């Protein structure tokens, strides 16, 4: 244990749970690795296991585990529980290929194993740059924060057009560049070693001028361009759209363009080599991580030159030149497409390196022909390796706003449509599953039938189901990231719940960035969300009711409204005009039922409230319309009614037993005589089914037995 020591708990280390350090060992935080490598709503171990291995595992809280461990006959359950979890951690590392990926990146970037996991992209870029610059007799400059703050600020921004908020029933082409910024740096020879600075900069005596954060940079222009005419000088330099000058490749080839070009060619070679080893899974995985590392390096190189806040070698002249060149390229593409009458196309949206082209009145087959023609003609206008690619066709689609759109994707004319979205609630993880499911079904109906009446009818049914509690509670769980210690005096709802969980059990303190699951319970109109939000455990224990109005108006309708506002349709009006009818009241467990005299047995049956569990205004035996809960026809046939009621009681017991068997099989407790498996896996549907069935056993069974008793007494009275 002498090798164990506590690392200094800096904010970064505390945030990334790296307070434990073992000398001579690399300590991996698997939860953090899963969080960065997987896109899930929450990153509990059980949820990751379900995602990767399709296995459902039970969850026992610390109190349950302590109780089991203190029992000598059940101690082995706890040991098996933790051994299984430890084995799954090892399987997760292997399934995600964390060690293989880190090993490949270590060989690629020439840095130590731990740094590829713990350090950022800046460290990887510098590890490559330092090896290359050393061979070229260059040194990397590291400016202080004061020096960096004195350099010229970044002035350029990528071109992002504001799209018209419309529903497009005609094909929309999506064209984009493959790695635009790295391609610009290669083709235009943009580098620290080729930059001569801004054309308007003032030179001081001796050929000195400001470059980056250095003021006394010597640029020997006289020696470089001595005896050359203006035309010859213009052939040797390239002036970026922001008036920053770079020398061309025949004068000096930039170090960064050399690295990027070599990485680009290597990546192409690796992808070709993958085709030769299709049956070897290990080589396929190693090659995949190798080419992925090259791709990520190329994509973040521009960011290294623009990191003016945290970077060690930022240069606004270089960063702005890349961005302005990208803007210029995108504008020229938009102009060429819009002016070509043969294509009859119109660019409706552009974002940094991609354009959305609307083809009014064209078929899907025509769209693919025109898309290939556009790509072929426009790509020839740009130097290698800049290349415009035809990615896909949306037919139909909705453009909501910048970086927010949804549509049916086609990769070929005969391809089956695939639902694809970006930026809207369907792909975001801070909403509930009910919101996502309803939005997907609504958009599918819109794209396939384009019939708003069907959509209205579907939404009315969903509103009714939610209002009448015909729901799966799991679909309404919200999950948001909590970062305790970074909030003001009034933290948000999920942070308050995280603090409450820590007070109950200090071992359950939420990790930095962990997603806290919670529900919004019923409250008064004056209550704030943070006052009526509660954890799933508290919601079930307190037998709370779901805040139906909040989920319909604030979660579902607000998301739908952002989509349907392009049709001048107000979804809120649809909900407001819905015939609410008689909603199912919550069963009042605290008030005793008034039992009337045996002479008014029909009225006595009416007083037993089962509104929460059975349909209102229907007989609970024959399901025909009835003002009382057992209709007159069923009361006139006591033998049949008695049989059906007893059958219902048997089914309730059987359902409870079946659910418990499923949980016992999942928890490997088939041979243990326990009444209920103490599992708290809130991502499992069976947990909520068990909870509802438990409520039925507690609240409904006594009432059904009362009905049986009433019918038996009624039949006895009639016999007399």
Q: Any key phrases for this structure?
A:
globular; Topoisomerase I, Chain A, domain 4; alpha+beta; zinc; DNA polymerase; 17 strands; seven-stranded antiparallel sheet; 12% strand; three-stranded antiparallel sheet; disordered N terminus; 720 residues
Concise structural overview:
With 720 residues, the protein is an alpha+beta fold.
How would you explain this protein's 3D organization?
This protein has 720 residues and is α+β, with helices and mostly antiparallel strands. Among the domains are: 463-549 and 556-576, Topoisomerase I, Chain A, domain 4 (Orthogonal Bundle); 598-719. 49% of the residues lie in helices and 12% in strands. The strands form five sheets. Strands 3, 4, 10, 11, 12, 13 and 14 form a seven-stranded antiparallel sheet that branches. It has a three-stranded antiparallel sheet with strand order 5-9-8. The chain has a three-stranded antiparallel sheet with strand order 15-16-17. Helix 4 (62-70) crosses helix 5, helix 8 packs across helix 14 (281-306) and helix 10 (180-187) packs across helix 15. Residues 1-9 and 582-611 have low confidence and may be disordered.
Helix content: 40-55%
Rg of Cα set: 33 Å
Largest sheet: 7 strands, antiparallel
Straight-line distance between termini: 86 Å
Runs in which pLDDT lies below 50 for 5 or more consecutive residues are 1-9, 582-611
Secondary structure class reads: alpha+beta
EC number: 2.7.7.7
Domain C4-type zinc-finger of DNA polymerase delta: 619-688
GO molecular function, one term: DNA-directed DNA polymerase activity
Family: Belongs to the DNA polymerase type-B family.
């Amino acid at each position: 244990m002498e090798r164990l020591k506590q690392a200094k708990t800096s904010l970064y280390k505390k945030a990334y749970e790296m307070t434990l350090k073992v000398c001579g060992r690399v300590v991996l935080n698997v939860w953090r690795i899963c969080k960065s490598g997987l896109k899930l709503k929450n990153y509990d171990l059980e949820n990751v296991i379900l995602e990767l291995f399709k296995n459902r595992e039970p969850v026992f809280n610390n109190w349950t585990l302590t109780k089991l461990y203190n029992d000598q006959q059940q101690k082995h359950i706890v040991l098996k529980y933790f051994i299984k979890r430890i084995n799954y951690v090892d399987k997760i590392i292997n399934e995600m290929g964390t060690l293989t990926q880190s090993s490949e990146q270590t060989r690629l970037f020439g840095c130590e194993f731990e740094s590829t996991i713990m350090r950022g992209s800046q460290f990887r870029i510098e590890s490559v740059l330092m090896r290359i610059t050393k061979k070229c007799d260059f040194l990397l400059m590291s400016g202080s924060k004061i020096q960096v703050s004195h350099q010229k600020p970044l002035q350029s921004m990528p071109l992002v057009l504001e799209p018209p908020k419309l529903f497009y029933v005609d094909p929309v082409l999506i064209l984009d560049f493959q790695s635009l910024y790295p391609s610009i740096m290669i083709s235009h020879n943009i580098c620290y070693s080729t930059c001569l600075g801004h054309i308007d900069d003032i030179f001081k005596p001796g050929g000195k001028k400001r470059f980056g954060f250095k003021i006394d940079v010597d640029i020997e222009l006289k020696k470089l361009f001595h005896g050359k005419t203006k035309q010859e000088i213009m052939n040797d330099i390239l002036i970026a759209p922001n008036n920053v000058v770079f020398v061309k490749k025949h004068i000096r080839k930039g170090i960064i363009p050399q690295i990027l070009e070599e990485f680009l060619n290597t990546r192409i070679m690796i992808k070709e080599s993958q085709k030769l080893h299709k049956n070897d899974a290990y080589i396929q995985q190693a090659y995949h991580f190798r080419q992925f590392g090259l791709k990520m390096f190329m994509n973040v190189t521009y960011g290294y030159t623009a990191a003016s806040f945290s970077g060690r070698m930022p240069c606004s002249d270089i960063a702005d030149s890349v961005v302005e060149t990208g803007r210029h390229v995108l504008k020229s593409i938009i102009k060429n497409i819009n002016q070509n009458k043969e294509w009859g196309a119109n660019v409706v949206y552009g974002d940094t390196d991609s354009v959305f082209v609307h083809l009014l009145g064209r078929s899907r087959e025509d769209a693919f022909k025109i898309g290939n023609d556009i790509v072929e003609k426009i790509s020839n206008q740009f130097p290698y390796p800049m290349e415009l690619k035809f990615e896909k066709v949306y037919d139909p689609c909705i453009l909501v706003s910048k970086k927010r759109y949804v549509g049916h994707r086609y990769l070929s004319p005969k391809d089956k449509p695939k639902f694809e979205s970006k930026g809207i609630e369907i792909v975001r993880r801070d909403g509930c599953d009910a919101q996502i499911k309803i939005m997907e079904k609504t958009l599918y109906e819109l794209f396939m039938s384009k019939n708003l009446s069907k959509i209205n009818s579907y939404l009315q049914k969903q509103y009714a189901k939610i209002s009448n509690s015909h729901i799966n509670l799991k679909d309404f769980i919200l999950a948001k990231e909590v970062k305790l210690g970074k909030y003001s005096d009034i933290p948000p709802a999920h942070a308050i719940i995280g603090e409450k969980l820590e007070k109950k059990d200090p071992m359950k303190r939420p990790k930095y960035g962990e997603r806290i699951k919670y529900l919004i319970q019923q409250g008064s109109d004056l209550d704030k969300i943070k006052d009526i939000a509660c954890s799933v455990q508290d919601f079930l224990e307190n037998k709370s009711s779901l805040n139906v109005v909040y989920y319909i108006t604030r979660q579902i309708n607000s998301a739908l409204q952002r989509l349907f506002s392009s049709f001048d349709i107000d979804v809120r009006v649809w909900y407001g005009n819905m015939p609410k009818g008689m909603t199912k009241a919550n069963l009042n467990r605290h008030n005793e039922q008034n039992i009337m005299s045996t002479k008014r047995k029909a009225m006595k049956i009416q007083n037993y409230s089962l509104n929460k569990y059975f349909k209102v205004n229907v007989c609970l035996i024959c399901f025909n319309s009835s003002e009382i809960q057992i209709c007159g026809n069923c009361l006139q046939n006591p033998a049949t009614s008695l049989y059906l009621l007893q059958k219902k009681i048997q089914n309730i017991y059987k359902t409870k037993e079946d659910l418990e068997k499923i949980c016992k099989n999942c928890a490997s407790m088939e041979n243990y005589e326990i009444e209920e498996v103490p599992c708290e896996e809130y991502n499992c549907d069976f947990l909520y089914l068990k909870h509802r069935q438990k409520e039925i056993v507690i609240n409904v069974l006594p009432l059904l037995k009362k009905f049986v008793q009433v019918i038996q007494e009624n039949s006895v009275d009639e016999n007399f």
